[in-house]
Design brief:
- This protein is an alpha/beta fold and 266 residues long.
- The protein has one domain: P-loop containing nucleotide triphosphate hydrolases (Rossmann fold), CATH 3.40.50.300.
- Helix content is 40%, strand content 20%.
- It contains 10 helices and 9 strands.
- A 7-stranded parallel β-sheet has the order 5-4-6-3-7-8-9, sandwiched between helices.
- The longest helix has 16 residues.
- The chain is globular, with a radius of gyration of 19 Å.
- It starts with a strand and ends with a helix.
- It binds adenosine-5'-triphosphate and magnesium ion.
- The site of adenosine-5'-triphosphate has 19 residues, from α1, β8 and α9.
């Protein structure tokens, strides 16, 4: 029996499996995170905690869930109202408590968003809060999926400290490939604990030279390299501001993610 962060006694205590998504700006991190979460939810690999670690949060839009409050807003509010912190509670503990209560609960999928705190130094503080909370609540979930902001900072700041599986998203261009490799190198350099490295080359077209791309990645020690095709239906939903949950079965991107996840979850 464990005490649920929301104060309810539960028999959870899962050995949660964490999937972190990283990559250059606009390569499709949030889309892939959304499709991975959809796969997990539809295949009863629940409960799932989705963490939107990008201050320009939009994982909620892709999932069709609006987070109640985000970590940034909670920190701002508490910092402005220090006198309202309950007696006997430290500021950090109260922030943690509020963040835990802010997790958007649905039956199988909860969402926690990082947001963007306003004050100086608050960004680091929000990051630390996210990191602490993450390790505490992870055991309430079978799967934790983290959508990160673009680039390398979440690695150098160590918001991503460890993961069972890191999905590095690349686009099929030479610049995209170079940047995916840089992410891999930095993870190694910083000794971030990653059990499995998978590179997903997203938005590939039939005409793409897949062998050439494979050759590029053969120089680094990744566990798997997969291609996710360009999918007009995914783009259409995004342009219409609709969640990926509305994507029809048979979507080529969803099929690719399904086969990747079947191997990951085996
Ligand atoms: N496989 C795909 N097929 C077609 N469109 C895609 C695919 N993957 C992503 N897109 C589109 O590319 C755009 C960028 O995707 P997304 O927002 O997921 O990227 P991101 O890496 O999260 O961006 P950011 O760095 O800004 O967070 C979106 O319009 C999305 O719909
Ligand atoms: Mg994104």
């Amino acid at each position: 029996m464990v005490t649920h962060p929301r104060g309810v006694e539960t028999v959870k205590g899962y050995m949660s499996y964490t999937i972190a998504v990283a990559g250059k700006g606009g390569t499709g991190k949030t889309t892939i995170a959304g499709l991975v979460i959809r796969y997990l939810a539809e295949n009863k690999k629940t409960p799932i905690l989705a963490i939107d670690a990008d201050p320009n949060s939009n994982l909620g839009d892709v999932l069709g869930i609006t987070p109640k409050e985000n970590i940034g807003a909670i920190i701002d509010e508490i910092s402005k109202n220090i006198d309202k912190i309950p007696a006997g509670m430290t500021k950090d503990r109260y922030i943690e408590y509020r963040v835990q209560s802010a997790i958007e609960e649905s039956s199988s999928l909860d969402l926690l968003a990082m947001g963007r705190p306003e004050g100086p130094g608050c960004y680091c503080y929000a990051n630390n809060t996210l990191r602490n909370i993450n390790s505490k609540i992870a055991s309430d979930y079978k799967f934790v999926v983290i959508d990160n902001e673009a680039g390398l900072e979440h690695l150098s700041r160590r918001t991503t400290r460890k993961a069972d599986c890191l999905l590095i998203i690349s686009d099929p261009t030479p610049v995209g490939i170079k940047s995916a490799k840089r992410i891999y190198d930095l993870v190694k350099e910083l000794n971030i604990e990653i059990k499995k490295f998978i590179v997903l080359v997203n938005r590939t077209k039939d005409s793409q030279d897949k062998e050439g791309i494979k050759k590029e990645f053969s120089k680094i020690k990744i566990d798997d390299l997969k291609f996710v095709p360009n999918d007009e239906e995914v783009l259409k939903l995004s342009l219409e501001g609709k969640p990926l949950m509305e994507l029809e079965k048979g979507s080529v991107a969803l099929e690719a993610i399904t086969s990747i996840m079947e191997a990951v979850c085996r």
